[in-house]
Structure to design on (146 residues):
């Protein structure tokens, strides 16, 4: 729902990995309004969750959000391309401490911190839905297993 290109209702986030960081952009519009002209905080929280979750890829650790805090520092205006950045601050066994920012130019609009928990890919098999084939090797290089 945030960056999936197969979903026409996605939030239009694009991300890529540079070294161990996730960088990206998002351009919100009137579909994502809270107050007129301003992005809904829930949209920003969804973007933050997904952005921090993308760090699981360079970390090569499948994981899920256990808890997340989003601080809203400045209004996020619709119609502006905002920059996204996220990284892993610390790994403590299965606990993955992520941080990220959503910026409009030099202004940090929102910052986020989350605890992700490293899980085995089988975590998602309980839904009964098929997993993307490339998830099969996810976590193969992780030095500890859930
Ligand atoms: C590339 C993909 C991008 C996707 C981005 C989107 C990310 C998401 O939205 S994920 C969806 C939302 N999150 C979920 O559905 C998670 C639901 N929760 C769960 O499945 C489980 O509670 C889970 C896996 C997090 C933890 O369960 P479990 O594996 O049994 O571990 P558990 O033993 O309870 O906890 C492990 C450790 O984490 C700690 N912990 C767990 N939850 C929390 C929490 N909420 N706050 C603080 N600490 C926590 C525990 O205290 C424990 O610590 P310790 O080892 O020191 O005792």
């Amino acid at each position: 729902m945030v960056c999936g290109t197969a979903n026409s209702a996605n939030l239009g986030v694009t991300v890529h990995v540079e070294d161990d960081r996730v960088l990206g952009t998002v351009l919100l519009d009137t579909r994502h309004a809270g107050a007129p002209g301003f992005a809904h905080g829930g949209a920003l929280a969804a973007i933050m969750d997904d952005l921090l979750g993308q760090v699981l890829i360079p970390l090569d650790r499948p994981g899920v959000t256990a808890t997340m805090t989003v601080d809203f520092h400045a209004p996020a205006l619709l119609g502006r391309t905002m920059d996204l950045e996220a990284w892993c601050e610390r790994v403590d066994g299965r606990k993955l401490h992520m941080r990220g920012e959503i910026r409009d130019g030099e202004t940090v609009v929102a910052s986020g911190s989350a605890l992700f928990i490293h899980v085995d890919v089988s975590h998602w098999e309980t839904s009964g839905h098929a997993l993307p084939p490339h998830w099969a090797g996810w976590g193969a290089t992780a030095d500890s297993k859930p």
Notes: Residues 41-54 form the longest helix (14 residues). The helical segments are 41-54, 56-59. Residues 49-50, 53-54, 56-57, 64-67, 94-95, 115, 117, 119 surround octanoyl-coenzyme A (CB under 6 Å). The chain has a mean pLDDT of 96.
